Amino acid sequence: MKYIFFSGKGGVGKTTISSAAALNFALNGKKTLIVSTDPASNLSDIFEQNLKEEETKITGTDNLYASEINAADSLERYKAKVLGDSIKDLDNDVVSMIEEEFKSPCTEEIAGFDSFTGFIARKDFDVIIFDTAPTGHTLRLMSLPLKWTTYIEEVKKGEGRTCMGPVTNLEGSIEVYNEALRILTDETSTSFSFVMRPQELSLYETLRSIEEIKSVGIKNIEILINQVLPDKLAKFNTFEEQYKLNEKIIKQAKETGYKIKKYYLMPEEIKGLDSLKKFILMEDKNYAEKYFAQFFDGGGNTGCAAERGNKYSNKNADTADRIIINKDNNININKDADISSNTDIKIDIKENNSNIIAKITDKIKNQTVFIFFIGKGGTGKSTISLLTGLYLSKYKNKKTLVVSVDPASHIGKIMGVESLEQKPVQTENKNLFLSVISPDAALSDYKTDTMQFFKKVSNNADSLKVLEEELNSPCTLEIAYFKKFYNYFKLGYEKNNLNGNANDAGININAGDNLNLNGKINNALQNNTYDNLKDKFDYIIFDTAPTGHALRLLFLAFEYQKENKNNNSVKDEELEFLINTITDKEKTYFSLALYPEFTPVEEAYRAYKDLKEAGIEVSFLSINYLLNAKLKSIKFFKDKINQESKYLNAIKEKFNLPSLYFEQYPYEINYSNIEKFLKDSFKL
Amino acid sequence: MENSIVLEIYDPALCCSTGVCGPKPDVKLIKINDILNKLKNDFGDKIEIKRHSISNEPKEFLSNKTIREIIKSEGKAALPVCVLNGELLTKGKYPEEGALYAEILKSSLI
Known about the structure:
The structure holds two protein chains of two kinds. Chain A is α/β, with parallel strands linked by helices. Chain A contains 25 helices and 16 strands. The interface between A and B is large, with 59 and 42 residues.
């Protein structure tokens, strides 16, 4: 048995490389299973086949099976495991109450984790490949077997009667967890491949993740560098700098001593079995050389004339360089931008982007406005958040905070701020602040605050002991994280509205405790944050975690609201406020970040529908990495540009929304060049 | 004499007994935890306290005739249910400390 994990930041190509690896094993006669642990999986997109948690055979192969672990399927399995036959004897309203509880983040995490360990325990495959969620969340998943086994042991030693929540149901599975842990750390069977791009930040983050994964006990590690520029592009001026950077990063990666593998940037999209096979063949040097030759041989620095009639060009798309904005700079760009027409409609990115932001700023009246950028990993959410933040703060004189909800964020690094914390840190630009929600800090604050609150309500030492034990459960992370997230929404909050009545809780409170309990917990939870942000920020921009996890964090608000209703709890006014704010189009703007390729478009569209179902309207898109039309003179990019037109058209049809546009930069965005990028993106 | 008092609490769907994994620690849950700990302290091994959450151990709810019938006729609104020595004590809410002590003392006198 062989287990290979593919990990890395979003958008680096984990799914492509892991799918190709899986297909390669299968083609070599190994019975292979590829499992995605990403809640926003792209496996079904790449294999062009619907997938679910139970493995599905990939059509057109003999030995390849694929599976997507997803919350709905995991919960269904978990439900069957816990409820079993009981379900038919229970009333509908009781079952729905149980189901609501099962939707809590803790149960959801356990159910997903249970599915994951279930796959590790499988013995009926030769190779199991895991296409994982973006880094931070994968590290969490990997650490769970150890966290839960440790916790269960501790609880057994402790009070013993502590309810362990959903894990009670899985106690029999402790052997499975132990076995999972053993397999994960067994270097003869298990290896971890980190996929990265040949960029400084990518290498930096990869090395950091490697250190973390090593702490879980995983030893067998290699680094895969994806989207390396083919050598032949080096002779074009535009790519000279980027090519040099590639070389430098590859050299640095080699110096780390880990096994390194390179994958070249291909001008075509990898999707479907045939293109995956091509991707596998590219590992062969001769094949790769021949493949690239077709794009470069005969084409010089200018070479475009010779390319007419080339079998790789797409006649239809030839007529339009880009999708672009109509002449009136109307935000509703999509109506007139018809790519089948013969006129090139040029986009005025600066004009367009400034207009979109103006639509937001013009509306504001003495309230904090929240902007969310949500999208697949690697769509450039951080850069877009920072550019928007810079534009608003520096050129519109608005006090702006950019909050990263992604534990693996590097917005600080880009803005030249050494270390970020939850408390907003001012940047060189006095109106721009940055902040990050870190899971560790969130957890420790939640523990402290909750203990404080309990001590005000109870003085029973045994109760407090039970509480402490339960607080140490791996279950509390998500609620702790959520609390931090919703602290940012207190900004527009009228504090004197916080008149929760203790008696609503349905209990009698001893004299002296007869305080506003709601107020108490809110204050307690605020201790570790900061006051009066309302006066400080006009805009709060959320640079979110990749789609699946970002949506889950948002939807938790709705789950908690339901759960409160279910338990007849006191109305949680803060929660209500959060929900009212995020569902109010004037207060909160949602933007989906994407780039014109299949998976980001599909992922954004799924998010669009999910948000809509939850009552949230997406206000605008942020389309990133547009190729400069000048690149069209290089044959290598011709297909890519045609493909871009195709997807821009699809985006227009699917969403019919205004969009911010950003161009693909030949270099990595960092402290020294972000201003330049800003100048190219907005009218200053 | 051991376990002469058997107190059973049938909780609604809960993730944990203090509610710290849920949206907000619930004062009701803190309170009942306190009361149960006090009972344990006062009665020692004379009292046996069993606690079941419907989302974790639905079978416990169904195998007990009283509970099964209550939730069948009243649904989730009947939870939590508290049973003392096999007799229904409270439903739809947790018992109050004073009343619970009174009932326990009364039942152990008989």
